[in-house]
Structure formats: C-alpha cells, structure tokens
Amino acid sequence: MKMPLSNEILKEKAGSIFATSPSFEVSDKYAFIPTIEVVDMFRANSWYPVEAKESFVRLSKNKGYQKHLIRFRHISDFLSNDEEAVEIVLTNSHNRTSSFIIQAGVFRFICANGLVVANNLFEKISIRHIGFKEIEVKRAIERIVASIEKINERISLYKQIELSNDEQLSLARASKIIRFKPYQQIELDYLLRPHRKEDENNDLWRVFNRIQENVIRGGVKGKNIFTGRNFTSKPVKSIDSLISINEKLFDLTDKFASIKLSA
Predict the structure, then answer these.
(1) Which InterPro entries does the protein's record reference (predicted)?
(2) pLDDT band at residue 63 under the 50/70/90 scheme
(3) How many CA atoms lie within 13 A of 199 on its CB side?
(4) Is residue 95 a contact partner of residue 23, using CB atoms and an 8 Å limit?
(5) Using an 8 Å Cβ cutoff, are 92 and 98 in contact?
C-alpha cells in the first residue's frame, strides 16, 4: 500500500515546494505563498500528498522557484479496494510562471497510471498569489469532492463501451497526433499494446489506459520520415507536457464515448 509522502520525501522529490521566498524577478505586487503551507491545508482536509515532482531548470536563478506538481489522495482511498481513485492535482511555482492550479485527476492502481481529468468533466481552478485566501483552497477541494461521483460514473460508462479493432485503431490514430509530430511514423499497435493481463480487455477505459501508458511512459518505436532514422519514444517528464497530453487524451476518450453512445 502506498503511503502519504512525508515532508522529508517531498523535499527530496521537489525542493521548490519548500521555498521560503519568491524569485527576485517577481514584482512587488506578488504575494508569496509557500506551497508547503497549501500542502498542509490539504492535509488538514484529509487529502495527503502521494506524488511530487518539479521542472528541470537550466538557469541557476530559477533553481528552487520552478514549477512543481503534487498529487493528493483522500485518506479513505488509501484503504480502498477500488480500481481507481479520484485525486487532486496541484501545480504552482514561485517565479511567476504559474499560479496555483488545482485539477481533478484519476489514479489507476493496477498500473500506477496518474491521469488528469478533462476540463469538460472538471474545469481546472486557478488561484492567484495576489489576494490569496485559505478559503479558496477549501472551496476548490469541496468542488472536486462534489465532482467525484460524476467522474466515477463517467469511468463506469467507459468500461461498458466495447471497441472493435477498427475503433481501437481510430482512437490510437487520434491519440498519436497528441504526442507525436506528423513526420514521426509509428505503428499504432505499439500504442495499443497491453503490459498486463488485466488490460487485455477491449472496453474504452482499458484501451484508453493502454494508450495513455504507452504515450506517457515511452518505448514506442517509430521512424522519422524525413531522416529515415528509427527512434524509440522517451518518457514524458515535463510537467506542462504531462498535464497537457493527459488532459487531451482524457478529453478525446470522453468525446469517443459520446460518439459511441449517440450511434
């Protein structure tokens, strides 16, 4: 069972969470709110950090202030036997590159896939540093809690939608565009490849998760049609890319479900 992250481990994974001042480049109007204070607000509301990372920076002036991401899980989900858990995804920085952004996520235990819910199911919440109030964090948590049933119902719907081989290829083809350039030629079967027996079913939820895992974790073989060189995709590590690709894949899956249901 995965346990909540202590402050010590959080600091190892993303030291910028513990910044005690903002970057010197911010304006006088910038209201500095240490991310760790917001983490403690989540803890006080029974949401605990389970994952953290920060952006790689080349310039030393950005070190310790860069964008960071934290995923939170409700205490009840640590003891749950469910296949998935709705999580809260928080991003922030201390150098003006990001306000506090709070989004809904889904964690799938069997493959440790951390998804980001599409905006049409839960619209992301932005909290500015200027005029920051603790009550805004509490309201954001309440909004996500209120949306959990809706998100779980949608996932249950995905699990009931069976896809033919052609439909799986159509979803993989549309997903390919989200991650890969037009000149990067790949076999769609690489995106659909399951990594465990439990993912061999062909319902929309499992097909989506297979695609998401292969897109995000890399290992997809392809060919650059301009250079003729073969390549193997690398894992997606950028916070912005992780969120953007995950959002778009989830949105694509939801649209695919709507098309299937209306047919």
Answers:
(1) DUF932
(2) confident
(3) 22
(4) yes
(5) yes
The token duo for 6 is 């202590």
Contacts of 147 (CB under 8 A, 6+ apart): 86, 104, 121, 122
Query: What amino acid is encoded at 193 in this protein?
Result: R
Residue 111 has φ and ψ, to the nearest 5°, of -125, 5
Q: What are the backbone dihedrals phi and psi of residue 32, each rounded to the nearest 5 degrees, phi first?
A: -80, 125
Annotate the chain with three-state secondary structure. Answer: CCCCCCHHHHHHHCHHHHCCCCCCCCCCCCCCCCHHHHHHHHHHCCEEEEEEEECCCCCHHHCCCCCEEEEEEEHHHHCCCCCEEEEEEEEECCCCCCCEEEEEEEEECCCCEEEECCCCCCCCEEECCCCCCHHHHHHHHHHHHHHHHHHHHHHHHHHHCECCHHHHHHHHHHHHHHHCCCCEEECHHHHHCCCCHHHCCCEHHHHHHHHHHHHHHCCCEEEECCCCCEEECCCCCCHHHHHHHHHHHHHHHHHHHHHHHHC
Average pLDDT over residues 166-188: 97
Listed by start position, the domains of the chain span 7-158, 162-262
259 near 230, Cβ under 8 Å? Answer: no
pLDDT, averaged across the chain: 90
CA angle 152, 168, 228 (to 5 degrees): 125
Summarised one tens digit per residue, pLDDT across range 134-163 is 899 999 999 999 999 999 999 999 999 999
Token duo for residue 23: 């970057």
d(CA 232, CA 226): 16
